[in-house]
Design goal:
Number of domains: 2
Pathway: Cofactor biosynthesis; thiamine diphosphate biosynthesis; thiamine phosphate from 4-amino-2-methyl-5-diphosphomethylpyrimidine and 4-methyl-5-(2-phosphoethyl)-thiazole: step 1/1
Helix content: 40-55%
CATH architecture of the largest domain: Alpha-Beta Barrel
Shape: elongated
Mean pLDDT: 90
Binding site for 2-[(2R,5Z)-2-carboxy-4-methylthiazol-5(2H)-ylidene]ethyl phosphate: 274-276, 304
CATH class of the largest domain: Alpha Beta
Low-confidence stretches: 350-356
Binding site for 4-amino-2-methyl-5-(diphosphooxymethyl)pyrimidine: 177-181, 209, 248, 277
Largest sheet: 8 strands, parallel, barrel
Order of helices and strands: HHHHHEHEHEHEHEHEHEHEHH
Region (Unknown): 1-129
Number of helices: 14
Strand order of the largest sheet: 1-2-3-4-5-6-7-8
Radius of gyration: 25 Å
CATH superfamily of the largest domain: Aldolase class I
InterPro entries: Aldolase_TIM (IPR013785), ThiamineP_synth_sf (IPR036206), ThiamineP_synth_TenI (IPR022998), ThiD2 (IPR041397), TMP_synthase (IPR034291), TMP_synthase_cyanobac_bac (IPR016229)
């Protein structure tokens, strides 16, 4: 009987140690994410959500669990993996800590059933909350990056595609759209995958033109849709709230429709004649001025914009432009990118974001 009692005590101590370790792990991971929401995103709403969740976790961290702690005798403290020693970007840091929190909460959910069934139920709900917060945060971060982007490169087929895009990224470009209407799917998949990796290594957003399936396959940051493409509601259902969706518009009605359907940004154009939109009449600067006065989401003037007319577009009210040929066909994409960006230094756009 004494042996049985002793074994039960030993098992109880092990359970306490497991609970203690994973409570620490969950709280630490949440704090790391919370700090980015506070200092990186300046979002009091997200900070409050993570702080409240962290405090809810702490309420279950009882003294008997802490008393069972045995750090010197924990073999796990000596174990590490090379992937844990370096983070390639903020995205990878956040993703790693979301995984850390979710795994810890799953352990807590199971082992707490041996301690207090109510604790298991609580951590099950908290784990689902973390999944939702992960989607909210990654979507929020993308939207913040979109708000800060003045220049949007839309690619065209080129033998030097990767080289040109990287040169523009070196010049400060923060937003790239992959556009290739005629390539076969395997070519698009290969090129888009390489471009996404390249953009993310420079901390830039990567968008796919038209192809929601391709955006999902390579985990792009979003998709840009034309007026004849998939409905916004369908694209949102497939992509979720964490990815960006843009829509091309040529008049005020298309602008209002796109905004009412919940797009994250709109394209405004073509401002000038362009072979990219062969046969489509330019909308001119009047539509640019209209959007500047009426749109309350990010928008990009596009179509035939180059170094000769960029300031006319800015004077009409544009604080963001999308460029194709002027960068893709430039001899020095880095310098051209820097020139375009320099033209926006004198303006400070004000928007009312549709992402709280």
């Amino acid at each position: 009987m004494a042996d049985l009692y002793g074994r039960k005590k030993d098992i109880q101590k092990v359970v306490y140690r497991i609970l203690d370790t994973n409570l620490d792990r969950a709280r630490e991971g949440l704090r790391i994410i919370e700090e980015w929401c506070r200092f990186g995103l300046n979002s009091p709403q997200l900070v409050t959500k993570f702080k409240n969740l962290r405090q809810e976790v702490a309420q279950w961290h009882h003294e008997e669990m802490k008393a069972a702690r045995d750090t010197p005798g924990d073999t796990g403290t000596e174990l590490s993996h090379v992937r844990e020693e370096k983070r390639s970007s903020i995205n990878s840091l956040l993703s790693a800590n979301f995984c850390r929190v979710q795994e810890a909460m799953r352990v807590l959910e199971e082992y707490s059933k041996l301690y207090d069934p109510n604790m298991g139920k609580a951590f099950r709900q908290m784990r689902y909350s973390v999944y939702t917060l992960e989607s909210d945060l990654m979507g929020f971060k993308r939207y913040q990056m979109l708000l800060q982007a003045h220049l949007y490169l839309v690619t065209s087929p080129s033998e030097s595609l990767l080289t040109t895009v990287e040169a523009a990224l070196k010049g400060g470009l923060a937003l790239v759209q992959y556009r290739n209407k005629n390539a076969e799917d395997n070519v698009c998949l290969e090129q888009a995958t390489k471009l996404r990796q390249l953009c993310h290594s420079y901390g830039a957003l990567f968008i796919i033109n038209d192809r929601v399936d391709l955006a999902m396959a390579i985990d792009a940051d979003g998709v840009h849709l034309g007026q004849q493409d998939m409905p916004i509601s369908t694209a949102r259902q497939l992509l979720g709230t964490q990815r960006l969706i843009g829509r091309s518009t040529t008049n005020s009605q298309e602008m209002q429709d796109a905004i009412s359907q919940g797009v994250d940004y709109i394209g405004v154009g073509p401002v000038y004649e362009t072979p990219t939109k062969a046969g489509k009449a330019p909308v001119g600067l009047d539509y640019v001025s209209y959007v500047a006065k009426n749109a309350r989401i990010p928008w990009f003037a596009i179509g035939g914009i180059d170094t000769n007319n960029i300031n006319d577009v800015i004077d009409a009210g544009a604080s963001r432009v999308a460029i194709v040929r002027a960068i893709m066909q430039a001899e020095q994409p880095t310098l051209i990118t820097q020139y375009f960006l320099s033209q926006f230094n004198r303006i400070q756009p004000v928007y009312t974001p549709n992402h709280a």
